[in-house]
Amino acid sequence: MPRAIVTGAFSNIGSAVAAQFLLRGFDLHTLTNRRTPDGVDSITSAPLHFDPEHLACELDDADVMVSTYWVRLPHGGTTFDTAVQNLETLIGVAARAGVKRFVHVSVSNASLDSKLGYYHGKARVDEMVRASGMSYAIVRPTLVVGPYDVLTGNIVWFLRHFPIFPVPGGGAGRISPITLRDTGRVIVDAALASDDLDIDAAGPESYTFREYVELLARACGVRRLIFGAPAWLALAGIRLVELFVRDVILTEEELLGLQQDLLLTHKPPTGTESVETWLMDNAGLLGRSYVNDIHRHFGAGATTPIRSPTAHTTPHSCGNGHL
Ligand SMILES: NC(=O)c1ccc[n+]([C@@H]2O[C@H](COP(=O)([O-])OP(=O)(O)OC[C@H]3O[C@@H](n4cnc5c(N)ncnc54)[C@H](OP(=O)(O)O)[C@@H]3O)[C@@H](O)[C@H]2O)c1
Description:
By secondary structure, the protein is α/β, with parallel strands linked by helices.
């Protein structure tokens, strides 16, 4: 049975990738700092940390590796540079361990010219993957919409709880979102291809950010006053709310990314599912409670599974004591 390794099988995109590998009959191992969800016994797991010896052991017999690892924002001493360095270690170990194909989940419109740390850092890693000597795919999602998407979920939470929704900067920036399931399929299709690939993962529809908020309001059945507000004013309001929810809801860089259309692709869509249909069918799952992303990734929530890709998984030891 071919063996795949994916980071974050109990998190957001990694869980959709894991589900696709299982569907296609792979022996699946995940690197994650989250506990294995109850009842999961068809995925082995080991901690995601960037000690080269540990990684060399974990990656030893992999046919294919999908790396979803990244940090959404700098926090508590972890920066985008930290993520770049960690991925440099991972890619180097994978190449030396003889991983046959390496898939890097990047982001749409990553660029070395970008002044935004997220997009610049991703482009640095893209370069490392190209230079690694491994057969590779670079997959660039736009905005991934599913039950665990923090941005969409928290917009819906705001819409459910407040009568007005000021859209930062007017919301004219465009996005071409993709469903989580399509994203998993596009990534695993790329993992199983043989050519070196650099592709976007984007759905068939596009919206301005304001249209997207209006769609979310329709999907969850609420009528709200949705209006454009100057970026500085909306960010000031968001900073106030952050004091109460103790989270970082939207960074200035993330807003600039939206305004610069960085979550939009100009290539033909690789996703086939309608995000609008998914939202209409599943809005009931979204925004029921506020999702604190800092707690989820940097706090006590960083070891709790976000999602189970399957009902079956087993612990795994690779002989160095790491489970
Ligand atoms: N979600 C989107 O809309 C979107 C759009 C474009 C690109 N992407 C890219 O797609 C990839 C996966 O995104 P995702 O939404 O699935 O992200 P995610 O759930 O936050 O996690 C992805 C992986 O990164 C690890 N990770 C995240 N924050 C971390 C931290 N602070 N410290 C240590 N490890 C951390 C996770 O570890 P655990 O397994 O321990 O949780 C997981 O393995 C990322 O590279 C992201 O940049 C996402």
